[in-house]
Amino acid sequence: MPRPHHRLNLYLVSKDTDRSPTEEEWELSLQQMVESGAVDERGWAGPRAESLLPGGFQRLRADRPPNRAVFGNRTGGNRVRCPYCVAPLAKTFSRAAEVWRRGGDGAMKCDSCGRSVGLNEVAADPPLAVGRFAVEIRDVNTTELTEEGCTLFQSALGGDFHVIPSRG
Ligand SMILES: [Zn+2]
Q: pLDDT tens digits, residue range 73-93?
């Protein structure tokens, strides 16, 4: 079977930039997915993979980068805008994200309207999110999780999360 050139992967990233489940917490979530038949012990799609994501997926895994990271497409630039006044914010964002990656707080203010904007509040196209942890879901057909998937990953990530598509 010929496969499409660029696979679509998803990163599920907590909206809270510093939230990261412990190994133990992630194991519990994974176990829950194994028991429901969504994945096997190593995260490969199981018979009920579509209960999380319509069309299923190949595999899911915890992505725990050694340092704070930016999740999203690596190729090309992202248009980043203020969520309040829609002014372009790319440079301010990259500076603040770099400070945050090195251990700072990453606080930033919009150059245009002066409001405080959280790193994971910006409107980015293509979407991106910063974090310490992501659930990586490989080879998907859609970016829309099922209701069951939303509930499960909210519990796995400890709250609301961004769904960041990534090609390649
Ligand atoms: Zn603004």
A: 766 678 999 999 999 999 999
Residue 119 CB partners (closer than 8 Å, separation 6+): 17, 93, 96, 97, 100, 106, 108, 130
- If you measure from the C-alpha of residue 1 to the centroid of ligand 1, how many angstroms do you get, rounded to a whole number? 48
Distance in Å, CA 114 to ligand 1 centroid: 6
Cα 100 to middle of ligand 1, angstroms: 20
- At 39-52, the pLDDT tens digits run 999 999 999 999 99
CB 117 within 8 A of CB 89: yes
Q: What is the pTM of this model?
A: 0.92
How do residues 100-152 score in pLDDT, each as one tens digit?
999 999 999 999 999 999 999 999 999 999 999 999 999 999 999 999 999 99
Q: In angstroms, what is the span from residue 41 Cα to ligand 1's centroid?
A: 45
83 CA → ligand 1 middle, Å: 7
- Å from CA of 87 to ligand 1 middle: 6
Asked if the bond preceding 83 is cis, omega within 30° of 0, the reply is: no
